[in-house]
Structures are given as C-alpha cells and as structure tokens.
Specification:
With 187 residues, the protein is mainly β. The protein has one domain. The strands form 2 sheets. It has an 8-stranded antiparallel beta sheet, with no helix packed on it. The termini are far apart. 29% of the residues are buried.
Length: 187
C-alpha cells in the first residue's frame, strides 16, 4: 500500500509546475496613508495577474469597501457578483453598468488596532484582446467575531490589454499605514 502512495505522489508532483509567479511590484503604504494604489506600466509577458494584499482603511468606522478599475476607465463598463458569508448569514448580490469592480471589504479606523483584511485577486487573460477581462477575488476580514469572507467575480467590458490597475476605497477615505498590495505575473 505504501509503495502505491509513493507512485501516486510522484505522478502528482510531476504534474505540478513550480515558479509560476513572478513579482512585478509591491506597494506598501507609508505613515501618511494613500488615497489609492496604482500599478502602472504592467508588462504584457504573462498569462494572468494576481494581487495579494493586506489592507486597512482610514475611514472613521469599522469597515470600508474596496474596488478595482482597469486602465483608468471610470465609465459604466464594469459588472460584478458577490457572495458574502458572515458566520451567521449568507448574502449574494450583483451589479451591472458600474464604474468599478467591487473587490471586498477591509477594516476601518475603529476596528481593533493592527487588524487588516486580506485579498487574493486574480485578473485572468489580461492580454487577450478577443475577450472581456474578468477578476475573481477571495477576501476576508475579522472584526473580532463579526467579520466576513467574500468571493467576488468581476467583469470589465473591454478587450484592451490591461496595462494599469487602480485599487480604491469606496468612501475615498484611502488606505492606512502598512497596507500592502503586491502584484504578480502568472505564467
């Protein structure tokens, strides 16, 4: 039996590809905060992009939403779906003809000190000029037992190659010190 497991393990590992992620840029917010985060001049040499982030808003409150815009487009060319789990309830929502793609929630200034939200955002086929661009986001944040987990899919109704990504907070409050967004290229 154990020899069978070893054979299966070698077959699986032979199909796993390592080193698929290349760091493109990391932005860490300094002591003055930042109104938004922008990745620009993104190379078109990858298949997909991924943003990994921890964030906290400067909003006066327990939380704030975040959203993504591509190539500086602020027109009504975005749509999204969201599924939210809070531990006691589940909510689903969607929107079309929006000026952004919703990305998730992040703790605000009245949340417990040092508490940050986490994001993994995948931007799929960002150089493919034959289709609209899509994102999928997994986001979570704790509010000492009242946080949430969110799964989001978004659509940018444009076939252009994505060369810049901007992440904003809903209420324009911006991001607090130590918020960090890292952009990776995926082979």
């Amino acid at each position: 039996m154990s020899s069978s497991i070893g054979i299966y393990a070698s077959q699986i590992s032979g199909h796993l590809v390592t080193n698929n992620y290349s760091s493109i840029q990391t932005v860490t917010v300094g002591s003055g905060g930042a109104s938004s985060i922008t990745f620009s001049s993104i190379p078109s040499t990858y298949t997909h992009l991924q943003i990994r982030a921890i964030s906290r808003s400067t909003i006066s409150g327990s939380g704030d939403g975040t959203y993504v815009q591509l190539n500086g487009d602020t027109g009504g060319n975005y749509a999204y779906h969201i599924l939210i789990g809070t531990g006691s309830s589940v909510v689903a929502a969607s929107a079309t003809s929006y000026t952004y793609m919703y990305n998730g929630d992040t703790p605000g200034s009245t949340s417990t000190a040092g508490m940050f939200g986490a994001f993994v955002v995948d931007l799929l086929d960002y150089t493919n000029t034959n289709k609209y661009k899509t994102i999928r986001t997994l986001n979570g944040n704790d509010q000492n037992g009242s946080g949430s987990v969110r799964f989001v899919s978004g659509l940018w109704q444009n076939t252009a190659v994505v060369s810049s990504i901007t992440v904003n907070s809903f209420n324009g409050a911006g991001f607090a010190q130590y918020t960090s967004f890292a952009l990776y290229g995926v082979k």
